[in-house]
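Run log, item B.
One chain of 114 residues. Sequence copied directly from the ordering sheet:
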Amino acid sequence: VQLQASGGGLVQPGGSLRLSCAASGGSIFSFNAVGWYRQAPGKQRELVAVMGRSGSVTYADSVKGRFTMSRDNAKNTVLLQMNSPKPEDTAVYYCNAELYSTWWGQGTLVTVSS
């Protein structure tokens, strides 16, 4: 399984950005869970959102109401729509998938700044 994250970049506070994670070697809807994590400079990696096989999503309190995780089965991709980002959302964002093992994408940098 390989995961390819993309869509990062510079975004202004209050703007929007959409991250994508494309999977190859496995179907998105077959994983037990697919998640978005982030790691800010000097901090530990933390969970942003995780989607179970049923499609239900759990969000970190810090992003609830602002970020939305979804999946596109046709494109075998999971998305993270980031609305109203804040400077504290600046981090490298990673996607991961879990089944009988855990796989990580390479990360995409999101910088929230005016």
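Observations after the first pass:
- The chain has a mean pLDDT of 95.
- The first strand starts at residue 2 and ends at 6.
Flagged for discussion on Thursday.
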